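To the wet lab folks,

You asked to see what we're planning to order before we commit. Fair enough. Below is the target structure as tokens, and below that is the sequence we designed to fit it. If anything looks off to you, flag it before the synthesis order goes out.
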């Protein structure tokens, strides 16, 4: 979705990055624009900690809460796209926009992790937030609760994912801002030590971001990114001697094994190549080991509720692994069947094409692009108009739902580029703000779309020359 629109505080439209228009690309590879307004939120102060500068970072979706785990995953995957598809992003003039989006997150994480073995992991009370339908700049000042982890209250998943984000982003910045990249990498190392030394699951973000998979995947994921950022054998030793991996059929903010396995598939560890192959075999619909549900129209469908995140994560991993297989002249073996890089990129393309309009509903699931795109994204900033102080003073939280949430009208502000949750398992979709499972966008849905869209756009562009 629009990464700019999720910035806390968001930037003004005058400072929003340029983007390529859909006429220049086969399937709308755009880094999203900001809402047509100025979204400036104030400083956020935890009640019990004194003044702490936690300005920045991203709201995860349609609410006004900053969750550390999905935010870090957003930055990690966006960094992966910037690294792996650097030439394509540069060719389309989007690389600097990706760098800006990454840095908005890493600047926040540097502040949130300024103390040793301590990390602020959430800003805002989701229960209170969900009782009010207001834009972030109209939130009541003060009273923004803050959650944190430390040695006594560990949160291995969040610490390790934040380490991965810092390590991956350090690779992004080291060729043109070595000082900043070194700062990020040093912080990544400290956070990894914190994560693996003080182990424990943090459930403070439940029921919204519960870590159902545990923390072993994040530890493997962080060690993997630290190895690629440093090439230090200590991280390979950790991966070989201490990490735990597993065969999975999903890659998401909660489950990172498949991502690490694809990254490690070209190292000396044959196990990870086998596990990466297993992931592909579990997803490909014509594989003998197929496990993942595919809708009648051909869409990966793992769960109701922002299912498009699993679509873009699948497409991204298939795209990356396709390139790695082609580079090393390898194939994926699924029982007595073998699949090459062309099979993988074709499936990735089919998934993205579905989201952008080639589906039974004949509609796009990206706001502002294609045929009959969503107009009622479940998003406070997009649906609430600009309000004067006098008008704002007359609106209570209960009335905010009457005024803007429940009305069956298009959003006041277009959330250009946001990929919404998408259709159900039968390819049916309701463009209603109240249908959050279908219409709510998330940052990680779009961060995972950037790389594969850049790849597909470049491929199509080359074919047309």
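Sequence we intend to order:
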């Amino acid at each position: 979705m629009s990464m700019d629109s999720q910035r806390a505080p968001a930037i003004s439209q005058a400072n929003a990055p340029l983007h390529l228009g859909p006429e220049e690309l086969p399937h709308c590879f755009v880094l999203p624009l900001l809402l047509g307004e100025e979204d400036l939120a104030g400083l956020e102060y935890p009640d019990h900690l004194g003044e702490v500068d936690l300005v920045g970072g991203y709201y995860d979706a349609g609410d006004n809460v900053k969750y550390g785990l999905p935010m870090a995953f957003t930055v990690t995957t966006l960094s992966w796209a910037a690294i792996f598809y650097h030439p394509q992003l540069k060719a389309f003039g989007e690389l600097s926009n990706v760098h800006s989006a990454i840095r908005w997150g890493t600047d926040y994480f540097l502040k949130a992790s300024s103390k040793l073995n301590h990390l602020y992991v959430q800003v805002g009370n989701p229960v209170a937030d969900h009782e009010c339908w207001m834009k972030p700049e109209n939130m009541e000042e003060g009273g923004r609760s803050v959650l944190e982890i430390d040695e006594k209250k560990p949160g291995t998943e969040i610490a390790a994912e934040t380490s991965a984000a810092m390590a991956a982003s350090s690779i992004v910045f080291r060729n043109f801002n070595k000082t900043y990249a070194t700062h990020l990498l040093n912080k990544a190392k400290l956070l990894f030590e914190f994560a693996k030394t003080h182990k424990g699951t943090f459930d403070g973000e439940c029921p919204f971001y519960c870590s159902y998979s545990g923390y072993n995947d994040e530890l493997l994921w962080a060690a993997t990114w630290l190895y690629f950022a440093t090439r230090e054998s200590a991280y390979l030793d950790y991966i070989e001697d201490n990490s735990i991996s597993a065969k999975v059929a999903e890659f998401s903010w909660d489950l990172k094994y498949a991502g690490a396995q694809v990254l490690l598939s070209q190292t000396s560890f044959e196990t990870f190549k086998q596990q990466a192959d297993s992931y592909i075999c579990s997803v490909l619909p014509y594989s003998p080991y197929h496990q993942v549900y595919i809708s009648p129209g051909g869409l990966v469908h793992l769960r109701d509720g922002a299912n498009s995140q699993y679509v873009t994560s699948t497409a991204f991993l298939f795209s990356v692994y396709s390139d790695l297989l082609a580079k090393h002249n390898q194939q994926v073996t699924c029982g007595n069947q073998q699949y090459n890089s062309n099979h993988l990129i074709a499936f990735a393309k089919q998934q993205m094409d579905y989201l952008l309009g080639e589906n039974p509903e004949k509609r796009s699931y990206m706001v502002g692009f294609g045929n009959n795109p969503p107009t009622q994204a479940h998003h406070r900033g997009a649906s609430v108009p600009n309000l004067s102080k006098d008008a704002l003073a007359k609106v209570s939280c209960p009335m905010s739902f009457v005024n803007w949430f429940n009305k069956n009208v298009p959003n006041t502000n277009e959330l250009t580029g946001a990929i919404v949750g998408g259709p159900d398992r039968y390819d049916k979709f309701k463009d209603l703000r109240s249908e959050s499972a279908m219409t709510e966008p998330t940052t990680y849905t779009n961060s995972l779309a950037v790389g594969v869209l850049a790849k597909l756009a470049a491929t199509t562009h080359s074919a047309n020359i």
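Structural context that might help your review: The chain has one domain: 4-464. Residues 4-464 form a domain with the Glycosyltransferase fold (CATH 1.50.10.10).

Thanks,
Computational group
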